[in-house]
């Protein structure tokens, strides 16, 4: 196996590289040495430590954040772009324990599935996601939506096992924290594994990833009211609901390009065989530093003017 010397930085506080999907994926093909003086750094959007490294840098992120190519050599994230140094890997496609092959050629379900199902659930911890909260309140006017997270909890307890909890429902509110083309997380992905219908808001071109006949897609409706009318229709028509659940997750029941592990392997070969000068050893980071300072100065000036 080819040996690679890598490190991870600027991830969230609880991040453990051993539990990370990319690390696990790489370990099947490469002899990995975790070294704080790496040849290749994988970094995310939760800090600025990556700026001190002088090696090749791979921006690896599942958040709604753009890669800065003045600071990185390669990017692996959800963005749609045609750069040769970028691979589109939405967060759902790197969800540990939720392999896409499981969703192919699934057996058909029947109406017996619905006998003990409750209406809809809601799990949220971000109190600033106003679109999600607005929808929760509006749908709750039809029937109670069981909320087991931090936000608008109406169960009296916090859900500890997400998958065990959501499998007992017909629908789940699967709104992203924000909307941007291609930004798709586990929120729509996990419900597919327990045969329920996600109610989705997020990427306006989600049809690039999934068969939109398999879920309720906000972006196909002209208003929240129209979408809620569709949900009510499905809730009261078992035949129509089961038809939706039995639709393939992927178009034509074939994995999309973003779940293609062979393509990702080829991209890593490109990364680990590069001979180009690392961006960190060029003048580009100085330009990036100047741009950041200019933006910070502009923000401070705006705040100062607002306070006057």
UniProtKB/TrEMBL annotation:
Q: Coiled-coil segments, which residues?
A: none
Q: Which Pfam families match?
A: FucT_N, Glyco_transf_10
Identify the domain of life: Bacteria
Q: What protein is this chain from?
A: Glycosyltransferase family 10 (Fucosyltransferase) C-term
**Family to which this protein belongs:** Belongs to the glycosyltransferase 10 family.
Q: A Gene Ontology molecular-function term?
A: fucosyltransferase activity
Boundaries of every Fucosyltransferase C-terminal domain copy: 115-243
Q: State the UniProt keywords alphabetically.
A: Glycosyltransferase, Transferase
GO CC terms on record?
A: membrane
Output the InterPro entries linked to this UniProt entry: FucT_N, Glyco_tran_10_C, Glyco_trans_10, GT10-like_C_sf
Instruction: Indicate the segments forming the Alpha-(1,3)-fucosyltransferase FucT N-terminal domain, all copies.
Output: 7-93
What lineage is this protein's organism placed in? Answer: Bacteria, Pseudomonadati, Bacteroidota, Cytophagia, Cytophagales
């Amino acid at each position: 196996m080819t040996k690679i010397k890598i490190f991870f930085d600027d991830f969230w506080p609880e991040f453990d590289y051993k539990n990370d999907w990319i690390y696990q994926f790489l370990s099947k093909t490469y002899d990995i040495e975790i070294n704080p003086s790496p040849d290749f750094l994988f970094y995310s959007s939760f800090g600025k430590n990556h700026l001190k490294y002088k090696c090749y840098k791979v921006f690896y992120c599942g958040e709604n954040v753009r890669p800065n190519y003045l600071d990185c050599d390669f990017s692996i994230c959800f963005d749609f772009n045609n750069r040769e140094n970028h691979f589109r890997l939405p967060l759902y496609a790197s969800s540990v324990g939720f392999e896409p092959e499981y969703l192919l050629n699934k057996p058909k379900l029947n109406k017996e599935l619905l006998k003990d199902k409750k209406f809809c659930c809601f799990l949220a911890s971000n109190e600033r996601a106003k679109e999600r909260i607005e929808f929760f309140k509006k749908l709750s006017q039809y029937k109670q939506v069981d909320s087991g997270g931090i936000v608008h909890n109406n169960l009296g307890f916090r859900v500890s096992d997400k998958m065990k909890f959501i499998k007992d429902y017909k629908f789940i509110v699967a709104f992203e924290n924000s909307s941007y083309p291609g930004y798709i997380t586990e929120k729509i992905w996990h419900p597919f594994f327990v045969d329920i219908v996600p109610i989705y808001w997020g990427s306006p071109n989600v049809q690039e990833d999934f068969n939109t006949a398999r879920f309720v897609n906000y972006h196909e409706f002209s208003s929240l009211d129209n979408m809620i009318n569709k949900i009510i229709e499905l809730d009261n028509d078992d035949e129509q609901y089961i038809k939706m659940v039995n639709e393939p997750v992927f178009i034509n029941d074939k994995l999309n390009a973003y779940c293609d592990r062979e393509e990702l392997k080829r991209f890593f070969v490109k990364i680990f065989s590069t001979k180009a000068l690392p961006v960190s050893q060029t003048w580009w980071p100085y330009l990036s530093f100047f741009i950041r300072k200019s933006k910070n100065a502009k923000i401070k000036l705006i705040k100062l003017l607002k306070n006057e």
